[in-house]
Amino acid sequence: MAAIALHRAILIGFLTFCDCQRHGSFEDQYMGCYQDSVDRALEFRQYKLYTGTNSNGKCIRECKAGNECYCGSRYDYGRLGLRQNECSIRCLRNIEETCGGNWFIQIYSVCPTGKYKGAGDAVINDKPNCENECHCKALPCLYSNGRCTDGCATGWKGHACNERDVAECEGARGIDYNQDCHKCINFTCECNQQYERTNSTCMDANECNGTKGVDYQQDCHDCVNTNGNYYTCECRAGYELDQGTNQTCIDIVECDGTKGVEYDHNCHTCLNTIGSYTCECRAGFELDPITNQTCIDVVECDGIRGVDYDRNCDTCINIDGSYTCECRDGYELDPSTQQKCIDIDECEATKGRDYDQDCHKCVNLIGRYTCICDENYKLDPGTNKTCIDINECLGERGVDYDHNCHICTNTKGSYTCDCAKGYGLHPNGESCVDHSKHSSAYTSITVIMGIIVILLFLFTTIFAVRFLTRKQRRGENNTATVLSAIAREPAEYLELLGLVAHVKYIPVHANNDSPQIHSKQFSDPEILHQREYDDIGVAALKQTPGATSGNTPETHYIAMDSPKKHTNPTVSQSDKPKPKATLSKTTKTMANTSDEKLGFAQVDGFRGKWSFLAFQCPKGSDAVEKFWKLVNDRKIQSVVLLEDVSSKVLPAVESVGSFNDIKVICKEEWQKRGIKKFTVTLNDEQLCEEAEFANKGGICVLTVDHKLTNKDIISLRQNLISSERSPTCAIMCKDGQQFSGFFISVNCMLDMADEGNKIDIVQGLQQFKNVRPDFAPTDEQILLLSHLAKDYGSYGKELK
């Protein structure tokens, strides 16, 4: 605390409070805020105001305070204690200044330290008259005469301590002048650099009390003053003192140091930052969010399957910096990634060890395998992994085993027969024959078989020679042959090969300019020879007797009796043609309902008994999905797949095929004589709710992977009828019409026969041609039609 310089000091009374001290223009004369009591800090009260305005200047000028002002010359005004923050009450009617506090006074010297009263009045122009200098040791000099109560400062002398004492600088340092005066010259001190003169001494210049960035460095975190040696700094963590200046803090580059010492041992790649560092972490690790200075393991297994770890990882196992998997049966750990489970292809491994010994053809599935079984075997429904023998003897006689097998005995992959007395086992081992009719054949079986082989060889040789000769002749005389065929059987040729229904006979004229019509008949398809099969393309239809030059033109057709009535139906040769079987008047052939993407057409069968949808093999999963949705929506319960198109629309057996949104589940039932039967169920939330039958009884799918024969069509038709399903059937082949049209046409013809009508081949073919006008049967199919009577008479009866 500095003492007041004059003999008068002031006590400022209080009226209002504020949160800080305000001194007006007398800041440099302020000594401090001191405790007061009834034993006043200063001895004289100059005035006490109740009205008017009080201020520090008024009290200094009049030595009267305000509303109380005390004056005095005592230097122990601080005896009751310094309380700098207690003088916060505003002056009476003067809010710009504070006037002490509750029993606290603000002490001012009348003149600033080192000054005292000059000539004239005590106050001039509202300011104290303080014109003269004094140089006291510590306390202010007296206001009235400048006397120093504690003596003159070094280098000064006289009553008012304002005369130079020359002898001091010639004396001893620390005795005649101040110890801290670096160089005494003419009663004053000159100070070294980084020191400042204060009265007659040199004091260290404390840069740290100055402004950061001005008096000391901006990057000095905590300034520490040093005596005469400028200053130094204390630095925060991550920084160090610049050894070049010792006055600024610079960043520590931890990453240049030793791993595990300057930066964390688990920091994979150290990245320096200002005042610190952070890390880049390897895959499988992440930056510790608490310290940002170490890498910690990412526990992928706590995350989301398919996001944080592979979707095909069955059981995720965390390891440091990564993860691996435990796989369920049928899967193994991917050796390349060690992070997902992949299917084990058992079928690539050893039979009897990796897949069942009795699995005939192993088919790999996701997570397991199944089998394709040889003919007369089926997939074991218990395991779906082995083939078991089909016991034909438990089936239907005439269907599952031969009608003429008296007592069926199952064998592995086949069966044999025990025959009744008088019968013997046929060489095929699957039927019984009458000894009375075939004894000689059995006794001479070896000779007969030899003769048959020789005859077959000769027949094949003769046929090949004739075929090549006829082919060359047809190539040379193509036009003449066709004209000759038209001349012989004009109407029949146009009806069968051109599929023009109801073609009238071309009349035979009397003159030689008109073509002469000839009739070619095939009395019994069972005895047709190769030459006649070749001619079937020219004249396949039997001419009705009585057609002559003068006849009224009529429609002709091939007809045969129903096999219900005849064991061996033949082509009719009656003189009166039976009226042609026609469609019901109330049943119309449906218009061509087609979809270009799927390529299908809808055709009604004979008298509307069946409704067929002929499809082209779809291209792409979108079209396959649309096919199965259409099958489901139209409640189609029977599907026939021809020309091996099953691989395009059916998944592997016992697996689920996904065609976009629809799932197809396929189960193989049996395979016989080149025909396979599957049961298909569909699964999709968006499928038609009214067609949920597909998921209950399943869809019957029959497949043929070779060219159609009459026996194939008869067998397929028999299975469709016996399944007792909806009469709507979907047929699919590669081009959508050639095999489908032939299949539908033959079905129409056989429906005619089943109702007791004669089969009209032209009308049967015309059913499909009404919808697909460009359909025409091939020569091979025409040849098959010529055998239809015999095949349905024998093979149809056997199936029944």
Automatic annotation (TrEMBL):
This entry's Gene Ontology molecular function terms read:
calcium ion binding; protein tyrosine phosphatase activity
- Domain spans labelled Tyrosine specific protein phosphatases: 711-783
Which stretches of sequence are listed as region Disordered? 561-587
Annotated ranges, domain WSC: 27-111
SMART domains in the cross-refs:
EGF (SM00181), EGF_CA (SM00179), PTPc (SM00194)
Entries under Pfam families matching the protein:
cEGF (PF12662), EGF_CA (PF07645), Y_phosphatase (PF00102)
> Residue ranges of the Tyrosine-protein phosphatase domain?
563-792
Record field: transmembrane: 441-465
| Secretion signal, residue range per the UniProt entry | 1-20
Q: Which of UniProt's keywords are assigned here? A: Disulfide bond, EGF-like domain, Glycoprotein, Membrane, Repeat, Signal, Transmembrane, Transmembrane helix
Question: Which protein, by its recorded name, is this?
Answer: Uncharacterized protein
Species of provenance: Capitella teleta (Polychaete worm)
Q: Upper lineage ranks?
A: Eukaryota, Metazoa, Spiralia, Lophotrochozoa, Annelida
